[in-house]
Design a protein that fits this description.
2 copies of one chain form a homodimer. The first copy, chain A, is of the alpha/beta class. Chain A has helices at 39-48, 65-71, 89-103, 121-137, 185-194, 208-218, 220-227, 238-248, 254-259, 280-286, 344-355; strands at residues 4-10, 56-61, 80-83, 108-113, 117-118, 141-146, 157-168, 171-180, 197-207, 265-270, 274-275, 295-297, 300-307, 310-313, 319-326, 328-332, 336-341. A 5-stranded mixed β-barrel of chain A has the order 6-9-7-8-10.
């Protein structure tokens, strides 16, 4: 459709995939799974199947401009929105929203993270098309919920109001009761067993009009700051204006700032093989394992009594010789060697500790 | 003394120090402890204090000729004896013996490994001087025994006949009852408690005449092969002759071939801070440890909950980040990363396994 757009959020730093993902080249720019395209490229390819390419915007950190241009050379500069700082998804979406309103206030948009794994593109696109149709005709904020397959403690959950389902083009749509941040394992099990809870995929569909109204009501500060750019977007003043706005505005997620508080939220219940692939653990879960439960991506290796490990080496000439290791990550990049238990909390703690240490430059 | 010589045996491949020690540059050519000189250089320096430099011979593998010349540029080619194959210490000593006999049949020699650690040079030299004096006047084969300080299972032991000690220049000299290969821990404890057993340092002193006689009697094959070189040593034919001899002769240690069977063996009981530094475990024992019991030689590191490990990295720009590891070796060289329990048997097994694998080229 002519007035359908896609906003790809590509400003993350993917720190939990350290040391493969680095501040200078985070996860969305990497082909961590070895699929031949980076996450960002796969995301772009996915939406370019049914949204005009010139309607796809990338919002990213200013330092990643060259990476975006290198990986997506066909995206023109005015469609690469550069954030001077990371301020979470609220300001990111506000920026794209009010820039787009300058040109096409009647548009509907898909908002998509750039670094998630989606195994069933076709199913996703069918959901998105139906959601766009709904967004075109009703002032709702649509979020894509994924039927959970395990009690995952690393995802946010959406509780659907299963009493009042509606349908559009064969897709079930629910009103939403609650949004929940990452639960503990006990709660996650209750969620999954209940049948009411879905994983929050971070994929949203709405009309500019709908998000504009809810922002003005629920995030008035951010609304005002970005709305004031009217007449400045698409001019040579835009970047300076945005730099000032970002310096002033608070950092807040769209989930917390708008979705949790709005009555206009609707959820599609979908199954498109989704994972946010947010951690090494999710990488481990995703990848095929050898007979010892290892995920090995080390061209030259000699492993003995190594079980349930992730072993990655980016040096194709180096022998990685490991004896007796279980449930560890061994990740060798050109300037970092990490050896750490695979356990998510431990990995996160190590990365946090390094960020506070004098080796912080290696992040 | 004019007719004192030193034979430095430098043909080992130091495989148990892999991956720092490599076939292409084994342990004796390395400065593993960070002392500023390689083991070979330290050995040379030690004996050059009291043996004329032109009386010091190096026996090594043909592939190490350039390394010897690079590390000891003052040693002339005729004093670098090149073995075409490794055949243990028997042939190595026979070669040097019969070559020296060509020039100076009345000589006495010190035979020394090139890759051992000696902390008290002064004490060693006092023992060697006394031993040379004894060798000059009696047809005996002198071995230097080291008073054991722990029940070490990686050394050979010499059992002294404590009933009949003699003395020379204040040094106690014993006749020898038995030679024992590496004992198990139980036996090693009995040895140490008995007060009769000494570590076999592999340092020998004897006259050419004495070793010639015992070789002719106990290793007649080897004796004949090398003795037949009379008139060929120091000529352009020497290397071709030696290559043929080595192809024919058996591999056997001087301990097993001569010392265990000869009645002419005498042992000096000495304490010169000796270790053969034959394994990573002995390296670990030798080096100073931090408060967590680690030996760290990795310029850039971030270690958390790492205890009783050896962490070595030869890349001075690479961050070595390790979390939760105990009793491991982590050794990063330009082309090998080894992660392995510190346990000696395990390390040895890994290296053996690699030697039998398709990654054998990394040894």
């Amino acid at each position: 459709m002519r007035n359908h757009y896609c906003i790809i959020m590509a400003g993350g730093i993917g720190s939990r995939f350290w040391p493969v993902s680095r501040n200078a080249k985070p996860k969305q720019f990497l082909d961590i799974l070895g699929m031949g395209r980076s996450f960002l490229q796969m995301t772009y390819d996915r939406f370019a199947q049914f949204i005009p390419k010139e309607h796809i915007l990338i919002v990213t950190g200013h330092q990643y401009k060259d990476l975006v241009k290198e990986q997506l050379p066909e995206v023109s500069d005015d469609r690469i929105l550069l954030e001077p700082f990371r301020k979470n998804t609220g300001p990111c979406i506000a920026y794209a929203t009010y820039k787009l309103m300058e040109k096409d206030p009647g548009a509907s948009v898909v908002v998509a993270p750039s670094d998630h794994l989606i195994l069933n593109d076709g199913e996703l696109l069918r959901n998105i098309e139906a959601a766009l149709e709904l967004a075109d005709r009703e002032e709702v904020l649509i979020t894509l919920g994924v039927t959970p397959t395990r009690p995952e403690t690393n995802f946010g959950y959406i509780q659907a109001n299963k009493a009042k389902p509606t349908q559009i083009k064969g897709h079930v749509v629910y009103e939403v009761k609650t949004f929940t941040e990452k639960p503990n394992m006990e709660l996650a099990k209750v969620f999954v067993d209940s049948g009411e809870f879905y994983w929050n995929s971070g994929l949203f569909v709405w009309s500019l009009k709908a998000i504009d109204k809810e922002m003005s009501r629920l995030l008035p500060d951010i609304y005002t700051l970005f709305r004031n750019g009217k007449g400045i977007y698409y001019t040579t003043e835009e970047q300076a204006f945005i730099n000032n706005v970002y310096a002033e505005c608070k950092g807040i997620s769209i989930d917390y700032g708008v979705l949790e508080k709005s009555k206009k939220v609707r959820m599609f219940a979908a199954n498109f093989g989704w994972s946010d692939l947010g951690t090494w653990e999710s990488y481990y879960i995703q990848k095929e394992k050898d007979s010892s439960g290892n995920v090995i991506d080390a061209p030259v290796n000699f492993l003995k009594d190594v079980t349930d490990c992730v072993v990655i080496s980016q040096d194709k000439n180096k022998l990685i010789a490991i004896k007796e290791l279980k449930d560890y990550l061994v990740i060798n990049t050109p300037d970092v060697l990490m050896i750490c238990p695979r356990n998510e909390k431990t990995v996160k703690q190590v990365i946090t500790d390094i960020s506070l240490s004098k080796e912080e430059k290696f992040l």
